[in-house]
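step=encode ok
step=design start
structure_in=
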């Protein structure tokens, strides 16, 4: 049985060899046959040279793909899954935060449990600042509330069966969210817990700004609830204004002097900001639609190469 290992790599020169050694050690006694798809997501350090060396030295046959520039982890995962030929694929990070020692257990669960997806779920969040943890909790709450999908503890460390790989790679969208879309596919899944260790080398690529953009775009692409909330606000505003109109008219007919200047200013401020907020939100959705209708490819491959022994892999993707 052939299992593909899909690894997105961006500026991992310092840790790649250590990662590979660890991986090969963990899989040495396994009964399965493996192939690896290493996707260099436009690294600016010497990751590609390190990958080149691995393709020659490695026991596990490697197919290496290099993007023309940095297209992001999601693009790299997609390219890796498209190139994978195994009956199942394991997607994992190259920084040892997704411990390779878990792979045999994931495969076992997949074979015994007959589920199409095996998810590695973080038992606790990585050592990170309180602010980051708070942000993550808030984000997962919001995501759950708006899309109805629970992703807490989810990671990109997953095993996908061939059926799930084919469905995932066939999805038409340009903007992708591996964690969310694999849940959206709806295949039965089984969870394997793990404690995420710290990075073996280098540092995380996600700054606060990047994470905020990610939160915004994933919620927008999975839910139209924010738009509906604007509509609800609109309705509430109409009801409120109607009440206020009736009250104002009533006062007028009663002959009360109108001392409503503060009210007018408040109303202008509140309505003005709500309208701007609504427009901004609609703009976000239009931007997302624009990105999708352009139908640009998710990534551009500049170069690809295979281990000499890669051609010996006999199991072919069915169909
Ligand atoms: N990665 C990538 N493209 C990017 C950023 C990251 O392919 O633009 C890869 C990176 O090399 C690593 C994995 O995605 O294998 C996870 O990245 P990182 O460790 O920076 O993320 P974190 O663990 O902090 O979520
Ligand atoms: Mg990491």
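sequence_out=
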């Amino acid at each position: 049985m052939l299992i593909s290992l899909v690894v997105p790599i961006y500026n991992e020169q310092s840790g790649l060899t250590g990662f590979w050694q660890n991986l090969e050690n963990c899989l040495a006694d396994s009964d399965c046959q493996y192939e690896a798809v290493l996707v260099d997501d436009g690294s600016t350090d010497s990751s590609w040279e390190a990958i080149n060396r691995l393709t020659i030295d490695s026991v596990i046959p490697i197919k290496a793909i290099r993007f023309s520039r940095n297209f992001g982890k999601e693009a790299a995962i997609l390219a890796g899954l498209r190139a994978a030929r195994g009956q199942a694929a394991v997607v994992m990070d190259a920084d040892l935060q997704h411990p390779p020692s878990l792979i045999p257990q994931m495969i076992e669960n997949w074979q015994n449990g007959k589920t199409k997806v095996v998810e590695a779920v973080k038992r606790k969040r990585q050592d990170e600042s309180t602010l980051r943890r708070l942000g993550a909790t808030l984000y997962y709450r919001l995501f759950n509330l708006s899309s109805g999908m629970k992703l807490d503890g989810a990671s990109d460390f997953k095993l996908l069966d061939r059926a799930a790989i084919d469905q995932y790679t066939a999805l038409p969208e340009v903007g992708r969210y591996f964690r969310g879309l694999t849940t959206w596919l709806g295949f039965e899944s089984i969870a394997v817990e793990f404690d995420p260790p710290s990075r073996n080398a280098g540092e995380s690529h996600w700054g606060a700004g990047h994470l905020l953009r990610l939160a915004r775009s994933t919620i927008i692409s999975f839910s139209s609830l924010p738009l509906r909330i604007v509509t609800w606000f609109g309705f509430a505003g109409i009801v409120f204004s109607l009440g206020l109109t009736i009250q104002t008219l009533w006062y007028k007919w009663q002959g009360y002097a109108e001392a409503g200047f503060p009210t007018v200013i408040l109303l202008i401020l509140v309505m003005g900001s709500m309208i701007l907020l609504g427009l901004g939100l609609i703009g976000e959705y239009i931007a997302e639609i624009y990105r999708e209708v352009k139908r640009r490819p998710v990534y551009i491959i500049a170069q690809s190469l295979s281990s000499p022994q890669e051609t010996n892999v006999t199991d072919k993707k069915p169909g």
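step=design ok
step=annotate ok -> Residues 93, 95, 97, 199, 204 surround magnesium ion (ligand 2) (CB under 6 Å).
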